[in-house]
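Quick one:
INPUT:
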């Protein structure tokens, strides 16, 4: 499924708003309406720990991925971006009971994945600490967020290969992108629900006010 979003009003600080198209990845054998809704500008995505992956068997390279319902973004109608600064912004809310999932990720291009790894950045959600955002499963970045709308910004800068994350306007993490992924030449962004280790029986998130912007 794809949806087109119109370009936003001019952004401050030299940022140029970017139009985007959404493709929803969901369990291959489940109708989209059973894992995704869009109502009054709010995207609601959920997945079950027992769900099938998004790719139907036989799996490429015998690689069966974990369950997910995610929005993949084409920016300015391009499948990948390769240079410049790219900023993702949204408001998110995860409910009580959801845990062990990725809410947002920067993914390497498909031609780069085998050599350089699949992700440059992942933002995990755990039910611990009253609902926490985490850098992968390595570092807690923010706590006490269950059931609350929060503003999220993620900035990816090339060719420096850095990522910065802000929560409600405050920087909570910045650093080099993940491990060997800096060798990749192309990237794309996703948000939604992607099960990780210890995923709860049902994992869900609501997302609204999605915006992208770019500068050289």
């Amino acid at each position: 499924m794809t949806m087109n979003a119109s370009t936003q009003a001019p952004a401050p600080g030299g940022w140029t708003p970017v139009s985007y198209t959404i493709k929803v990845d969901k369990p291959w054998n489940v109708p989209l309406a059973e894992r995704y809704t869009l109502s009054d500008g709010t995207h609601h995505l959920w997945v079950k720990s027992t769900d099938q992956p998004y790719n139907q068997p036989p799996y490429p390279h015998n690689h069966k991925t974990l369950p997910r319902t995610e929005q993949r973004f084409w920016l300015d109608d391009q499948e990948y971006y390769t240079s410049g600064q790219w900023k993702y912004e949204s408001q998110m809310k995860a409910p009580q009971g959801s845990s062990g999932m990725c809410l947002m990720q920067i993914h390497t291009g498909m031609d780069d994945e085998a050599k350089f790894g699949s992700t440059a950045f992942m933002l995990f959600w755990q039910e611990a600490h009253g609902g926490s955002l985490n850098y992968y499963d390595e570092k807690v970045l923010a706590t006490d967020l269950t059931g609350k709308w929060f503003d999220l910004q993620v900035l990816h800068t090339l060719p420096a290969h850095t990522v910065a994350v802000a929560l409600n306007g405050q920087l909570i993490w910045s650093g080099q992108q993940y491990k060997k992924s800096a060798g990749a030449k192309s990237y794309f962004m996703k948000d939604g629900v992607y099960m990780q280790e210890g995923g709860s029986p049902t994992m869900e998130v609501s997302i609204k006010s999605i915006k992208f912007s770019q500068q050289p």
